[in-house]
């Protein structure tokens, strides 16, 4: 299927690894140019060397307000057609264990920067009467996950923000959706497994078996599988899909509409 995104420019957060990198590489494969945003200058430079002019490295800390202003200016300068809001998730933990400082940090890293960057991009997208915004969150939006209270709380807030945004900006040609990944083979799942193992005082391998028992397909997702759906939602082929939260989880979510 031709996604009709060749020659278009997209921004991808967390592009140096995991799901973000997979999305960036899929977009490049389809002929698009990617502005990759992440903290790691070295990893971004390696991607730029690998993909040439189709990858523009832009190191930045997406939890820092001043950095987001600069990122927004860069994306406007390149007239991006779409933006992938993606960054590492908040640390695992329970309501009792986590400090208020950790709650404040989770607000900054999981919700606030997405609002700030969206607001920066809206004037340009309104003028173009076109723009696609894609938020990479978690199945915890639909089904809270044990030991991930920060993710459960703030990703649900992102869902409320995105749904409201699509109601307000749809008439201006702007669409927004959420992808809710389940367990994928990335460094993030390793962190979650190790924390769960420590809390239960069992091995990481035993915890992984517990996690996979919840997935009907019986395995971790592959980042490149996830990237296929992301690229589709960013393409003109998905223009009539907006305000949706779509699970990519191997059937894990028990919510009746997925």
From TrEMBL:
It is an enzyme of class 1 (oxidoreductase). Its EC number is 1.1.1.100. The keyword Oxidoreductase applies. Gene3D superfamilies: NAD(P)-binding Rossmann-like Domain (3.40.50.720). Transmembrane segments: none annotated. It holds the Pfam family adh_short_C2. Belongs to the short-chain dehydrogenases/reductases (SDR) family. This is 3-oxoacyl-[acyl-carrier protein] reductase. The lineage of its organism: Bacteria, Pseudomonadati, Bacteroidota, Saprospiria, Saprospirales.
């Amino acid at each position: 299927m031709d996604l009709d995104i060749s020659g278009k420019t997209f921004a991808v957060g967390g592009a140096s690894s995991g799901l973000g990198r997979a999305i960036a590489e899929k977009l490049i494969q389809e002929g698009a140019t990617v502005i990759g945003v992440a903290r790691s200058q070295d990893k971004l430079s390696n991607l730029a060397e690998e993909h040439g002019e189709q990858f523009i490295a832009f190191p930045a800390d997406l939890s820092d307000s001043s950095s987001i202003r600069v990122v927004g200016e860069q994306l406007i300068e390149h007239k991006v057609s779409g933006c992938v809001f993606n960054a590492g998730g908040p640390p695992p933990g329970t309501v009792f264990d986590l400090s208020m400082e950790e709650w404040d940090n989770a607000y900054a890293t999981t919700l606030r920067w997405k609002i700030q960057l969206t607001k920066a991009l809206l004037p340009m997208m309104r003028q173009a009467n076109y723009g696609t915004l894609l938020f990479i969150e978690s199945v915890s939006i639909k089904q809270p996950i044990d030991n991930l209270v920060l993710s459960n709380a703030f990703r649900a807030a992102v869902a409320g923000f995105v749904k409201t945004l699509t109601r307000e900006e749809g008439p201006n040609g702007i669409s927004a959706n959420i992808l809710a990944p389940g367990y994928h083979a990335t460094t993030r799942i390793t962190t979650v497994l190790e924390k769960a193992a420590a809390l239960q005082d069992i091995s990481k391998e035993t915890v992984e078996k517990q996690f996979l028992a919840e997935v009907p397909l019986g395995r971790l997702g592959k980042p490149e599988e996830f990237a296929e759906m992301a690229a589709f939602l960013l393409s003109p082929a998905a223009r009539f899909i907006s305000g949706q939260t779509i699970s990519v989880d191997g059937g894990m979510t028990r919510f009746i509409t997925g």
